[in-house]
Recover the amino acids of this structure.
């Protein structure tokens, strides 16, 4: 009799437990279906006016219109984007605080002895929306017309070539070009891409790895020459320009990408909802024009594809830093 009562009690408890679990799932589903029910805070870990900020405001504005919810851009520059990234890593994992991330996000672990967050465990990536490849440019003082000729000159005259670089991302892609090309060259640091290219045109340095946006006006003057693009495919705006891989260095690929991340643990349905909406925004003709103005092209990726890209980038830039013997700070 006692055993029968115990069994009955257990069944009652199980039934109530199942009911509670069902209610929990129902509440969770309701929260997801109502997302977003309030404004979204978009952390841009760079100062206003740059490509990250421009992209954030455009995509954020489009998303806000589609959802009838404000996307508030919050610029938090400093420490190569680490300050803003940490804010998102420590935020509630509910999709209401997003990070405007870019290639620098995967470079920082290679530069810093210790980060205040884990780039894999503390973040969930929701979407990517663009990629801008770099250009390999040379000035009039360097008698080369192709990447193969440039590499051959670098190997024939070790440390003869001087590369102008704006530091940060540009330092990484410049060091990678030197390493993958298999020649020795000096990298001269500048405060910006514009001053570096001005010195390339003036013959003070021989070459620079540059963004399309910065180099385009100077290319039109004919005093700066582009040899190749660092993208995985040719640029639609410069179809005659080969990729570095086509030009003789198959292992080289260097682009700035942009995307959005949320705190680790953000529910997958919320991430997918953001991903789907961003993909729709990328199909708009106006988006293509905005991307082209930044020297970029639209790029939508699935969430699994983004996760693999982040992991691959972390390995890639760690190797570049090790090969270049970059000191960690």
């Amino acid at each position: 009799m006692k055993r029968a009562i115990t069994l009955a009690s257990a069944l009652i408890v199980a039934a109530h437990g199942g009911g509670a679990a069902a209610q929990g799932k129902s509440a969770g589903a309701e929260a997801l279906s109502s997302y977003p029910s309030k404004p979204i805070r978009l952390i841009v870990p760079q100062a206003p006016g740059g490509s990250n900020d421009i992209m954030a405001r455009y995509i954020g504005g489009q998303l806000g219109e589609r959802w009838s919810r404000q996307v508030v851009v919050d610029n938090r520059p400093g420490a190569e984007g680490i300050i803003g990234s940490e804010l998102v890593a420590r935020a509630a994992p509910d999709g209401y605080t997003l990070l405007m991330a870019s290639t620098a996000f995967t470079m920082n672990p290679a530069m810093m002895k210790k980060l205040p967050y884990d780039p894999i465990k503390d973040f969930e990536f929701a979407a990517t929306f663009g990629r801008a490849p770099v250009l390999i440019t040379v000035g009039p003082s360097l008698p080369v017309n192709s990447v193969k000729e440039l590499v051959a000159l670098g190997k024939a005259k070790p440390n003869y070539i001087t590369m102008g670089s704006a530091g940060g991302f540009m330092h990484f892609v410049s060091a990678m070009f030197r390493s993958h090309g298999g020649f020795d060259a000096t990298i001269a640091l500048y405060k910006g891409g514009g001053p570096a290219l001005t010195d390339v045109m003036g013959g003070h340095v021989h070459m620079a790895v540059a963004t399309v946006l910065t180099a385009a006006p100077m290319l039109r003057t004919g005093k700066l020459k582009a040899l190749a693009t660092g993208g995985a495919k040719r640029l639609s705006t410069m179809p005659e320009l080969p990729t570095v891989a086509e030009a003789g260095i198959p292992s080289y690929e260097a682009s700035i990408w942009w995307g959005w991340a949320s705190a680790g643990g953000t529910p997958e349905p919320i991430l997918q909802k953001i991903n789907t909406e961003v993909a729709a925004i990328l199909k708009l003709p106006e988006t293509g024009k905005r991307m082209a103005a930044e020297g970029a092209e639209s790029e939508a990726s699935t969430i699994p594809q983004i996760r693999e890209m982040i992991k691959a980038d972390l390995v890639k830039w760690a190797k570049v830093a090790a090969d270049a013997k970059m000191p960690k700070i």
Q: What stands out?
A: The radius of gyration is 24 Å. Residues 2-33 form the longest helix (32 residues).
